[in-house]
Amino acid sequence: MKFDMNKMMREAQRMQEELAKAQEEAKNEIVEASAGGGMVTVKANGAGEVVSINIDPRAIDPDDPELLADTILAAVNEALRSAHGLMESKMSGLVPGDLGALGGLFPGA
Q1: Angle, nearest 10°, between helix axes 5-27 and 65-91?
Q2: Is this model's pTM higher than 0.90 or not?
Q3: How many CA within 13 A on the CB side of residue 15?
Q4: CB under 8 Å to 35, separation ≥6 — which residues?
Q5: Could you give the CA distance from residue 101 to residue 109 in angstroms, rounded to a whole number?
Q6: Is the pLDDT at 85 greater than 80, yes or no?
Q7: Number of alpha helices (DSSP H) and beta strands (DSSP E) in the chain
């Protein structure tokens, strides 16, 4: 069996294009997470960027700013986990074998 370097390079280029397309698609998708019984809602895109934070005015207690901060942090972290999961789902199947599990392959992994 003869090794075809050109074929391998074409396949690598095709895979790179598919990965870039999947990343762009994920960037345009939005995930949402909330905390504190829905008092704080955070939206993030598939690129892992927070795109909005909504805070119910009832969540703002001047005597307990730490609770609001903790609630925002929880919602942001959950939204970012969801965004990461979205990106992983977009990438699964595009990378052969177990290469998709390599943390350094995708930004934010």
Answers
A1: 150
A2: no
A3: 16
A4: 71, 72, 74, 75, 78
A5: 9
A6: yes
A7: 2, 3
| Most distant pair of Cα atoms in the chain: their distance | 74
* CB atoms closer than 10 angstroms to residue 39: 19
Q: Which residues is 52 bridged to in the sheet?
A: 43
What is the Cα–Cα distance from 30 to 49, expressed in whole angstroms?
Answer: 10
DSSP character at residue 109 = -
Q: Are 58 and 39 in contact (CB under 8 A)?
A: yes
pLDDT value of position 96: 60
Whether 71 shows a pLDDT value over 60: the answer reads yes
As beta bridge partners, residue 39 has none
If one compares 94 and 44, the residue with the highest pLDDT of the two is 44
